[in-house]
Structures are given as structure tokens and as C-alpha cells.
Amino acid sequence: MALVVVVGAGFSGAVAARELAEAGHRVVLAERRDHLGGNAYDERDAAGVLVHRYGPHIFHTQAPPVWDYLSRFTAWRPYEHRVLASVGGQLLPLPINRTTINRLYGWDLSEEDVRRYLQRVRVDRKPLRTSEDVVLSRVGQDLADRFFRGYTLKQWNRELSDLAPGVAGRIPVRVTEDDRYFEDQYQAMPRDGYAALFRRLVDHPAIAVGLGVEGLDLPERRQAALVVYTGPLDAYFGHGLGRLPYRSIRFEHQHLPGVPLVQPVATVNYPGPEPYTRITEFKHLTGQRHSGTSIVREYPTGTGDPYYPVPGPESDLLARRYRALAARESGVVFLGRLAQYRYLNMDQAVAAALVASKRMVRNLG
Known about the structure:
Layout: E1 3-7, H1 11-22, E2 26-31, E3 42-44, E4 50-52, E5 59-61, H2 64-70, E6 76-78, E7 83-87, E8 90-94, H3 98-105, H4 111-121, H5 131-156, H6 165-169, E9 186-190, H7 194-201, E10 207-211, H8 220-223, E11 226-229, H9 233-236, E12 246-256, E13 267-269, E14 278-281, H10 282-286, E15 293-301, E16 308-309, H11 313-327, E17 332-334, H12 337-340, H13 346-364
Helix pairs in contact: 1-13, 4-5
């Protein structure tokens, strides 16, 4: 039995802690915040509405092993996420689909008509070096300007032309009327919430949980056979090579008493001049019955907790230099979105943690 210190209790750290504990090792799981779950944490606000403290987290995956694994710790509420964008005084489906184009322009195009329209307006960009290349090659200039350019500038503080192609590449374009944001086989919300899922996930006699503590400062670290680090990659090395760029978000939560619902869907995006990027209404996600409703506005910022790695040539180069340092760090595994400086959905974080845990268990013996 080895002692392992896991730093960070989001999906990456919690899954690793559980897997190592089930393999017979003793785990100290340390989290600097006052709760488990990382950014997926949810809680009831003062009015009793279940909200996500750090913005909406919708679970979706194409991976049956990930679904089956998490199903050990939660039952599910089926939920398919839908998003509207506020454009030109209308609320239009996003991702862009047939309905979006017909309502925006006052047309009545068939699926084939929409396909021909997009083919006509698309801008040939090869190779696809930036997010602007990706968007223009899919929807052309006008739709790019209306739906993507302003939102991107607010969210990332960068133009489309300054972002890596993978940022815009995550958003599909459809010629059908399918208005679901995700197309994955499994789409659902934890029935009892994320906080309950995480409590069950780390409920193991070999896991000692410490909240409100810095894991790297724990005395147990000196005796640990292994440290699993899920915090920011550059912070581990004291930002010695410079700070990796992240985008943060300021969340403005609001409860509206006596109002059943204020939005037709869970999330409305605002690519226009509004200072916020989106508003999410949580009762759509949870199905909770309550006389009032609770929403959150998101204001992107360059300061605060790191949420999104900013992909680009300069940040990619700096991240590679930090990863080279990490590769030489004996007895430490760097795991998760922040520690690996890459964008990961929740299911991807779980899948990566499961794979890494198998490797750690083999190495520990």
C-alpha cells in the first residue's frame, strides 16, 4: 500500500483518488476550495434553487465506459441542452441550423436549399490555421459576423483570426432543424446534482479528504510515493517561465422570486454589445419545481480563477516548455485541463483520469 497525495478534487482528481483507493492505496485528496467537484460544483442558493456556482455544466458523452463509470455514483435525469443566440432582436438556435437561417433572413429554405446557400457563401480557406478560417469556411462572412465574431472577442479577448482553429471547430453547423447543442449518445444531468455525485465518488475508507488546504504544502507530500497534480501547470513551477494565458469568468447570480421561467431554453448567448456572453437559467437543467427562478450572467475577464486555456502559437509554445519541465518531475503526475493546459469536457477528463489511473496503479505495483 502506497501513500498518494492528489491535489484538486475536480473530476480528474476525484476519479484518480477513487481508482487509486480501490487499487489498495491510501489517498489524501486535497482541495484548496471549500467544496468538492471543482468547477462542476452545484449548491442551493438562498432561495433554495439548485444552481451551478461556476456556470452551467451539462454532462454529455459518446463513451459508454465513462457513462457506466459515473453511473456507479449517480442516477441521471435525461436532458438535452438547447441554446439560443440573441441576434438582431431575435432568439435564434445555436448551433446554426435551418431554422436559424430561415428566421434570420425571413426565408423558407429546405434542407437542400440551406446546404446550397452555405456552399455559396462559404469562404474557401485552406489550410485552416485559425478559428476565423474555420468559421468562414463553414458559414461565410455574414453569419460569422453575427454569431461568432463579437462573442469570441468578449469570451477570449481575441479576434477570431488570433485563435487556434480548434476553438470554433467544436461548434457544428447543421442543415436540419436539429436544435440540440450536443449530439452525443448520452446526455443527462446528475439527478441529485454534481455535489452529491462527488461525495459518493470520494466516499471510500482509503480516501482522506481535506478541503480548504493547499495540497502541495501538505506534510504528507514528503512521504507520498506519488503526487497527482491537477492545478495550473505554470503555477506548479512558480510561473518561472512566464504565465500561461487563461480566461476567467465573473459570475453574477440572480434569483427572480415569483417568476416561474424567464428564458425559453437553459442558455441564451449574447454575441452583441452586451458586456456578458450568456445567461443560463438553472431550472431548465435540473427540472426543479420552484415558484421563482435563478439565473447567472457570465462576464469574461482576464483575471481571477483560471477556467479556459487560451490556445494560440505563443501559449502553445510556452505550454510545451512547461510540459517538458513536467516530464522531468519525478514522482508527480500532471492530470486534467489545468495541469495539461488543454481544453477537456467533463467526460474527457473522466476518461483521461481512468486511463492515467491504470498506469499509476501499474507503476505503484
